[in-house]
TrEMBL record:
Residue stretches making up the ABC3 transporter permease C-terminal domain: 427-539, 847-952
Protein name: Transmembrane protein
Cross-referenced PANTHER family: INNER MEMBRANE PROTEIN, MEMBRANE COMPONENT OF PREDICTED ABC SUPERFAMILY METABOLITE UPTAKE TRANSPORTER
Record membrane topology: Multi-pass membrane protein
Subcellular location, record wording: Cell membrane
Source organism of this protein record: Bifidobacterium choerinum
Stretches assigned to coiled coil: 302-374
Length: 973
């Protein structure tokens, strides 16, 4: 006897027989409902864990494959004064740099329909550049001659041009955009620059640096440039023939890194590699080549200036020599006239002929003096001009800007959008896993409880504890593996297919297909297997510690205890008998209370969290364009047309207030070197006070852990001591009021250190406001080209205006202005507030809400089934006591409804808190997610959860009806 007991304690020596296996199989078939619950919960959990990840991963893989195929540059160097072949050779010598090719560029203006004009950048690859930044041909072909051009799909979408059309282009200025030295013939250059050139569209391409889909719904996305700038591609040598561009000067040098070919461009390893190479270039190549370029430009410019000075002073000296000769002649004439006048007798009148000669001499003398004064003025003016030009030459300072792919707005937007969606996919599975473990523990505990007597029998027959434990562990393992397998199918096929449809509407990524990640898929299943299997082992081992004789007897009921409500005498006395029973049952089964309330709270929190994210995105547009932005219309004009635009707005008489500004792209960098693009808005000094009437410059607010907003206060005021930065840009860089940042304006200017005077609340966009005087101090030559010491005049290229009329009238007027030739873009805040949407986020939220609802249904069904199965004898007793079926239904369902309501009460604030955490993790350029939940989202969450509970009752009631009082009340003994 002792030997048998010792054997059992050592794990069992009795081998598995066919009877044991058959009984195990039958018990599994009998427990199909718990099996199905674990299977579905595991399926949903694995699907959520892998689905969103797989969709984002597929997008990154397809984008990375496309970038490699088209050779998108890893590093780009641009210069304020162009780059040369020698610069390119120096860059090729940098360790890790593979291909390094120069790109010539020219800024042009394109004539559109109805007199409209569009800005574009013509790119001409140098020899060998076909492997770097190669455009992806969608229609037609690439240009082969100087009168052909390939345009982007965005251009054909916006201008309605098509393949085969002829477009008229004009250079934006007479100077080559690549930084020409000025050695070409100026008249010839000006003639070519001012001329209208006709180019035939022979191809429609995709710029590899911008994968936005113009034909999808990305046009209504939240990111809009200051003004559309299209990219054109021309054949090699075209810019020289069309615009007389210097073929030896490049606008940029683009490079591919040898070690980056096999790296994912969206990983930290790739970023570290690129950053290292950029640091090497900035440390070793940039200073030396900038100095060489400066000396070359100064030498060339000095030679030109010396020639011009020599020619100018030679002409002045020649004129002076001619004037001196005339003065000598005039002096000789004066001597002759004096001699003749001396011969006239005293008292005699001067002869008429001599008097006339004297008058002529006086006139000639006056003319010579005037001519001398002109020559002196010319000499002084020439000296001043040459001094200014000499100062310009002395101030020549080429500046390199070494950029990675993050400087490309298209690449950064794609990476940010997909990464933000993936962050949601990383957070939600945690809740699913916790719920899966809780439900598995509940389910397996009930299974072991039901087989309590059978377990004792098997132990008494000599079966080991390990053998019996495997009976339940394999049950949970099989359910989890089957559910995980189905979850992988949904996660790597169903959910990604759904997401890719939405993503394809935002980004035109060729060859976007489904991929499978064996490692991540296996780890996803393993994670849930560990959780579920751990719960099963805990539930089974816990009861097997007892002796077989104890297990074969029914478990003694827990001793009764008073609940809290019983101590509240007035309330307890007025409760009915069934209500008292319900209250006692709820608090008597504490594990069921915790599991039900926790499960329902988690599911309700997930539903509300999904709806909260959706509401937050939906509220961004109205809150920004109706609350923060106080203006009604923003209009941007071509440089040079600002006065015409202002006069037109005044003449139309549809505005109540106008504030002229200059808007350009800029970049801010924090102390750690991280940077982000911003919309730099320069405010005229005389209109600084009007800024607060166009924008509500509230100090940025932050959300506390409990959901309320902190911060706020009086409106910020723009001054000359610092800039005002929008909250979205400040958050992405970790910048706050009082910090110092590096600010760079458009056009490749030198960055300047400036203080952040305030960080203001802003949800959409990344505005940075700077006063006119402060802008002049930081960028004194950014808008001037004469090199004078006086402050250059800023071109006020944009207007913020308040309009008369209702929303429809304002939208109509903005659309009318957009058709004007002088207008680059015109937008109405009324239209922006109405049309703002973020389709990708909405699709993910809808998916999450659907999965959370499914999880809630499964959790409620599992808990309800467990509740009924462990209280069969109680239900049978009620029937014996004469309760009707409906009364039994009410008896059980009321408890579940109370527990469901308790779970909802806990789940609503929990969901609000989780929503704040998740939206805080969604760091996206140009967006700040300020959590906003509409009241109907709370109602939807409550109604949906209660509806799931009622639906479960429809499945539970037939089970209660089938309870046989006689068999259920039979004693195990």
């Amino acid at each position: 006897m002792m030997a048998g007991r010792d054997a059992r304690e050592r794990g069992g020596a009795k081998p598995l027989g066919s009877a044991f296996l058959l009984d195990t199989w039958r018990s599994w078939l009998h427990a199909w409902k718990p099996f199905l619950s674990i299977l579905i919960i595991s399926m949903l959990g694995v699907a959520v864990l892998t689905g969103i990840y797989a969709g984002c991963r597929d997008t990154f893989i397809a984008a990375n494959r496309f970038y490699e195929q088209q050779g998108l540059h890893d590093v780009q160097v641009v210069s304020t004064m162009g780059l040369t072949d020698e610069d390119m050779d120096a860059l090729r010598q940098v360790d890790g740099v593979g291909d390094a090719v120069g790109v010539r560029m020219e800024r042009v203006t394109v004539d559109g329909d109805a007199g409209r004009r569009f800005n574009a950048t013509m790119r001409e690859p140098s020899d060998g550049a076909a492997t770097v930044d190669a455009p992806y041909v969608r229609e037609g072909r690439l240009p082969k001659s100087a009168d052909e051009v390939a345009v982007t799909g965005q251009f054909t979408h916006d201008t309605h041009h098509k393949l085969g059309d002829v477009i008229d282009v004009t250079a934006s200025d007479a100077t080559d955009a690549a930084g020409e030295d000025g050695k070409a013939d100026e008249d010839n250059t000006a003639d070519k620059a001012d001329a209208v050139h006709k180019l035939k569209i022979v191809g429609v391409v995709t710029d590899p640096s911008d994968l936005s889909d113009p034909d999808g719904y990305s046009g209504s996305a939240f990111r809009t440039a200051v003004a559309n700038d299209y990219t054109f591609y021309v054949a090699p040598g075209s810019l020289e023939r069309i615009f007389d561009a210097d073929p030896q000067v490049y606008g940029a040098v683009v490079m591919r890194l040898t070690d980056a070919e096999n790296k994912d461009a969206f990983t930290d390893d790739y970023d570290a590699l690129v950053s290292s190479t950029m640091s090497t270039i900035e440390r070793t190549v940039q200073p030396r080549r900038e100095e060489v370029r400066r000396e070359a430009l100064q030498r060339s410019a000095q030679d030109e200036l010396d020639k011009a000075k020599a020619q100018a002073y030679a002409q002045i000296d020649k004129a002076q020599a001619q004037l001196d000769a005339q003065r000598t002649q005039l002096d000789d004439q004066l001597k002759l006239l004096d001699a003749q006048a001396a011969q006239v007798p005293v008292g005699m009148p001067m002869p008429a002929q001599l008097a006339d000669a004297q008058r002529q001499w006086a006139q000639g003398d006056a003319q010579l003096k005037e001519a001398q004064q002109k020559i002196n003025t010319q000499r002084n003016d020439a000296g001043d001009r040459f001094t200014a030009e000499q100062q310009q030459i002395d101030d020549i300072a080429p500046r390199w800007y070494v950029q990675s792919r993050t400087a490309l707005s298209g690449f950064s937007s794609l990476k940010s959008d997909i990464s933000s969606i993936r962050s949601l996919g990383n957070a939600f599975p945690i809740v699913f896993l916790i719920v899966a473990v809780m439900m598995s523990l509940t389910t397996m505990s009930r299974l072991v409880e039901e087989d309590r007597g059978l377990i004792g029998t098997y132990l008494g027959l000599g079966y080991g504890r390990v053998t019996i434990t495997l009976r339940y562990a394999l049950f949970a393992l099989l359910a989890c593996l089957l559910g995980g397998g189905l979850g992988l199918l949904i996660g790597f096929l169903g959910i990604p297919a759904f997401l890719l449809v939405v993503i394809h509407g935002l980004y035109a990524i060729p060859d976007l297909r489904l991929e499978y990640d064996w490692l991540y898929g296996s780890m996803g299943i393993l994670l849930f297997v560990v959780g579920v299997l751990g719960a099963a082992l805990f539930a089974s081992i816990r009861d097997m510690r007892q002796m077989p004789a104890t297990l074969m007897r029914p478990k003694a009921p827990k001793a009764g205890s008073r609940i809290l409500l019983e101590h509240i005498r007035p309330l307890w006395r007025h409760m009915s008998f069934l209500n008292k029973v319900t209250a006692r049952n709820i608090f008597r089964f504490k594990s069921r209370l915790v599991m039900t309330v926790g499960g329902v709270a988690g599911c309700a929190a997930l539903i509300l969290c999904g709806l909260a994210i959706n509401d937050t995105v939906a509220a961004l547009g109205p809150n920004q364009y109706r609350g923060i932005d106080q203006y009604d219309m923003f209009v941007m004009a071509n440089d040079g047309d600002e006065k015409t635009l202002h006069d037109k707005l005044v003449q139309d008489g549809k505005t109540t207030a106008i504030m002229q500004t200059r808007v350009e792209n800029g970049e801010i960098t924090n102390g750690d070197g991280s940077s982000t693009s911003v919309q730099l808005t320069i405010v005229p000094q005389k209109q600084i006070g009007e800024l607060n009437t166009m924008f509500r410059l509230e100090p940025a607010r932050s959300e506390s852990i409990f959901g309320w907003m902190r911060g706020g206060g009086q409106s910020a005021k723009l001054g000359d001591d610092g800039v005002i930065v929008a909250q979205s840009a400040a958050q992405s860089l970790g910048v706050k009021a009082g910090d110092e940042i590096m600010l760079r304006a458009d056009g490749g200017s030198q960055p300047h250190r400036v203080k952040v005077s305030a960080v203001t609340r802003s949800l959409i966009g990344a505005e940075t406001f700077v006063s006119e005087d402060l802008y002049h101090r930081m960028f004194p030559a950014s808008t001037a080209g004469d090199g004078s010491d006086e402050q250059p005049a800023i071109t006020w290229n944009s207007v913020y205006a308040k309009l008369k009329g209702d929303d429809d009238a304002q939208i109509k007027y903005a659309q009318q202005l957009e058709n004007e030739a002088i207008v680059l873009s015109a937008s109405s805040t009324a239209l922006q507030a109405k049309d703002f949407k973020f389709d990708l986020m909405g699709a993910v939220v809808g998916l999450i809400v659907a999965l959370a609802g499914s999880l809630a249904l499964v959790v409620l069904f599992t808990l309800a089934h467990t509740n009924v199965s462990e209280r069969m004898r109680e239900m049978a007793t009620l029937k014996v006591l004469g309760f009707y079926d409906k009364e039994v239904h009410h008896y059980v369902n009321r408890e579940m409804m109370v527990l469901t309501v308790m779970g909802i009460i806990i789940g609503l604030p929990l969901g609000r808190w989780v929503a704040g955490l998740l939206t805080g993790a969604l760091n996206m350029p140009g967006l700040y997610f300020e959590v906003h939940i509409f009241w109907w989202s709370y109602v939807i969450t409550v109604v949906a959860t209660l509806a799931f509970a009622l639906l479960v009752q429809l499945f539970v009631d037939p089970v209660l009806d089938r309870i046989d009082p006689v068999s259920s009340l039979k004693s195990v003994e």
